[in-house]
Design goal:
The protein is an alpha/beta fold. It has a single domain (70-315), classed as Rossmann fold (3-Layer(aba) Sandwich). Helices cover 37% and strands 17% of the residues. It contains 11 helices and 8 strands. The chain has helices at 16-22, 36-40, 42-67, 117-123, 142-155, 170-185, 208-211, 221-224, 226-229, 263-275, 299-315, and strands at 69-76, 79-86, 97-101, 127-130, 163-168, 192-196, 252-259, 280-289. An 8-stranded mixed beta sheet has the order 1-2-4-3-5-6-7-8, with helices on both faces. Helix 3 (42-67) runs parallel beside helix 4 and helix 5 crosses helix 6 (170-185). It is globular.
Length: 318
Amino acid sequence: MTAVKQQPPFAMTVSAEARAVMTPMLTAPPAPEMTAALMRNPITRKAIRASAANHLKPLNKGRAKRFGVDVGKGVMAGVPVRLVRRQGIDADADKRLLINFHGGGFMVDSGSLTETIPIAGLTGIPVVSVMYRMAPEHPFPAAVDDALAVYVEALSQRAPTSIGIYGTSAGAVLTLQLLARIKAEGLPMPVAGGFFSGSGDLALTSDCEGFLPSIMGSRTAPETLADYAAGTERTDPLLSPIYGDLSGLPPMMLMTSTRDQLLSQTVLADLALRRAGVPVDLRVYEGMMHAFWAWIECPETDVALAAQADFFSEHVRA
């Protein structure tokens, strides 16, 4: 493992609101790593997941009120899901659907509501967030199996032109893995996909990880995802889709920022998709940290969320 690096001071080109949230992290001690040993201890693992959920509760509550949405729980194809819809919308009558895969390194839920509440509110499209099985208990391809099961059930009720899929961080990884799996299974593609600060390559450490502090203490992305990948060859195209044939995938929006450890991986995915002839829209935001739209309230977040919402509103049709 590499030594823990320090963030340089945040630039004045970033909004005051964003700097107020990010600057204290320059001097804060590193958060405890979700190491393999910790996550394999059922008691510790439960505590880490509960802590992550409690940390996001105020943001979830504030966003639900701000964007005017209702949140519920359900099951699709035997998989637990969260149901998010704009208030006053009859979700059963609206054939459009967005399917979200939350972030959290495949180890915790770090975004099933923060990533979905704004998009449901801004677009009016019901969003289902898949509570997929996580590592280390359930390594690859368990999460992809769950994502595929939910997608297949959605297909049984609506046209693929009415379905979009997306995720942030680990959820972006899962989004691209699901698209590779859909292609391998010969199923109809969703009409659009959102790949927000993710990686299509679980084999190699990217450039930005070489000089930015790790998301997980001192662990690189490949090290962090070791329990998820488990015994699967890291260059397997179903695990690391960048090594496979990406032709035929739907239009994709990719999103990252210049202080994002996965900036390089997002750019590499963008290049691979372009080479495969996939229509892409890459957005890179100035000076912001990894997945900022999912946890920081600031003008940059408003711009990023509006871009995500516009993309899905344009492509997902009833």
